[in-house]
């Protein structure tokens, strides 16, 4: 069976010049598919190893620590092996842009921690980085083939997704969202037993340690989070290795398993995950009861709740020694606080950082001239000072991300918030 798969990979490789994008997540299925690709290419004569192959892995910035360190080591070994043997394979670690990171979305924009009905994290943290990478390459590639380790026996939803796409004569399926891409799933009919049989009986082509991978699975009693390229791919959870912040499932069995087998880092991370679930529940009072579109209902996290969570997260970082949030993310969080409902004065993040160290944040700014200008504008335009600052902050926010799409709608929403507040103060009703 393995020989048949290797033969089919070599035929597909030699059929045309279309580059490959191979999905890798660090788990068993993706480890097998990348190993097979390396084997297939190494078996070809050196003069025929001309196809460009990109191994891509996504780091959401909130991955389980044990997986993060392993994946980076594996990618380094892949690149070294490719260079040594002239395989023309390059491994990439992709990350979401900082302004779309998990913490910027939750602490900055106020997104509630994700659940099954609002799983915003998958698109922003996993799908978008891969799609942007592929689109960037397609400019000079034309077309590409995405090689994935998807298997029918992995789950019912995975089997259904594979059945929903028709294959062409070369065993390829069209990608739903990237029309110039085709998907190849060489191991889709293998069982879990056959995957482990291959990994334990074959040495890793790039010198990786499959026994260490097996031990990681034993410790976690779960499976990996797959490389996600579209919404039909099953989410993380159900004992998969994914984000330690995952609130989509009731219990993170993989993290619990790692803790039970001695990874003490997971205790503090699991506790913080419980905190996130508390803040997500509208009954606990941490969420605004007006949505961002102005309709009544559970909306974003209140600015006070975001500040509390940031304080707790910085405490977690200090106590655990893990780099859970970056300085660049803190910058973006402050940017979004400046344009939030009940906006921050621009010093909130700095104050929280100083408070964590037991210090106070001195205010040495001379704001007299700025305040005079603000007062004159608010009087002339008939808006509140808070609204003016939100409007300015929103424009600055868009300027920093070098985009303008959506800005008029967001400015209009801020003005509508201002009108709603004035109507409430005057005892008027509003639509």
Blueprint (SSEs and pairs):
Elements: H1 2-15, E1 20-23, H2 28-42, E2 53-58, H3 65-85, E3 89-94, H4 102-108, H5 120-141, E4 144-147, H6 156-163, E5 173-174, E6 181-184, H7 192-201, H8 210-220, E7 223-224, E8 240-241, H9 253-260, H10 265-280, H11 303-320, H12 327-337, H13 348-356, H14 368-381, H15 385-400, H16 407-425
Parallel strand pairs: 1-2, 1-4, 2-3, 4-6, 7-8
Antiparallel strand pairs: 5-6
What can you tell me about this protein's structure?
The protein is elongated. The chain contains 16 helices and eight strands. Among the domains are: 2-97 and 117-234, Rossmann fold; 373-425, no CATH class. By secondary structure, the chain is α/β, with parallel strands linked by helices. It has helices at residues 2-15, 28-42, 65-85, 102-108, 120-141, 156-163, 192-201, 210-220, 253-260, 265-280, 303-320, 327-337, 348-356, 368-381, 385-400, 407-425, and strands at residues 20-23, 53-58, 89-94, 144-147, 173-174, 181-184, 223-224, 240-241. The strands form two sheets. A six-stranded mixed sheet has the order 3-2-1-4-6-5, with helices on both faces. Strands 7-8 form a two-stranded parallel sheet. Helix content is 51%, strand content 7%. Mean pLDDT is 86; it is low at 222-226, 233-239 and 361-366.
């Amino acid at each position: 069976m393995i020989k048949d798969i290797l033969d089919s990979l070599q035929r597909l490789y030699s059929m045309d010049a279309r580059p490959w994008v191979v999905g890798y997540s660090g788990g068993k299925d993706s480890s097998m598919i990348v190993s097979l690709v390396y084997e297939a290419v190494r078996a070809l004569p050196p003069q025929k190893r001309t196809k460009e192959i990109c191994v891509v892995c996504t780091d959401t910035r909130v991955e389980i620590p044990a997986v993060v360190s392993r994946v980076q080591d594996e990618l380094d070994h892949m690149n070294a092996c490719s260079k040594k043997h002239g395989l023309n394979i390059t491994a990439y670690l992709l990350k979401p842009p900082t302004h779309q990171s998990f913490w910027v979305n939750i602490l900055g924009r106020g997104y509630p921690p994700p659940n099954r009905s609002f799983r915003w994290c998958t698109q922003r943290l996993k799908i978008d980085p891969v799609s942007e990478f592929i689109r960037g390459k397609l400019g000079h590639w034309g077309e590409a083939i995405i090689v994935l380790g998807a298997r029918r026996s992995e789950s019912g939803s995975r089997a259904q997704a594979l059945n929903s796409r028709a294959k062409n004569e070369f065993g390829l399926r069209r990608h739903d969202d990237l029309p110039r891409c085709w998907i190849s799933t060489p191991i889709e009919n293998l069982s879990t037993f056959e995957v482990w049989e291959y990994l334990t009986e074959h040495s890793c082509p790039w010198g990786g340690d499959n026994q260490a991978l097996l031990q990681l699975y034993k410790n976690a009693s779960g499976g990996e989070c797959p490389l996600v390229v579209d919404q039909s791919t099953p989410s993380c959870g159900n004992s998969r290795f994914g984000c330690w912040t995952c609130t989509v499932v009731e219990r993170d069995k993989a993290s619990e398993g790692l803790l039970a087998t001695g990874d003490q880092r997971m205790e503090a991370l699991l506790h913080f995950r419980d905190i996130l679930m508390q803040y997500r529940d509208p009954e606990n009072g941490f969420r605004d009861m007006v949505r961002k579109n102005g309709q009544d209902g559970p909306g974003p996290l209140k600015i006070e709740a975001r500040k509390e969570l940031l304080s707790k997260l910085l405490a977690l970082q200090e106590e655990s020694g893990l780099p859970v949030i970056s300085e660049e993310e803190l910058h973006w969080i402050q940017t979004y606080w400046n344009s939030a409902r009940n906006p921050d004065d621009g010093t909130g993040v700095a104050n929280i950082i100083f408070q964590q160290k037991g210090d106070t944040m001195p205010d040495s700014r001379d704001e007299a001239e700025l305040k005079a200008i603000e007062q004159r504008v608010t009087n002339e335009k008939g808006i509140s000072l808070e609204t003016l600052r939100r409007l300015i902050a929103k424009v600055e926010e868009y300027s920093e991300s070098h985009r303008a799409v959506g800005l008029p709608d967001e400015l209009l929403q801020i003005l509508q918030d201002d009108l709603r507040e004035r109507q409430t103060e005057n005892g008027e009703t509003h639509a």
